[in-house]
Amino acid sequence: MGARLKAYEGQAASVAGKGKDLVNEPMIRHWCEAMDDTDPAYTGPDAIAPPTMLQAWTMGGLSGHSGRTGAYDELFDLLDEAGCTSVVATDCEQEYLRPLRPGDEVGFDTVIESVSDRKTTKLGTGYFVTTRTDVRVGGDLVGTHRFRILKYAPARQKKEPEGPRARRPRPVVNRDNAGFWEGVERHHLLIQRCTDCGTLRHPWLPGCNACGGPDWDTVEASGEGTVYSYVVMHHPPFPAFDPPYAVGLIELAEGVRIVSNVVGVPYDKVRIGLPVRLEFRRYDEPEGDAEGGPSVLPVFRVLEGRAGGEG
Question: pLDDT digit string (tens) for 191-205?
Answer without folding.
Answer: 999 999 999 999 999
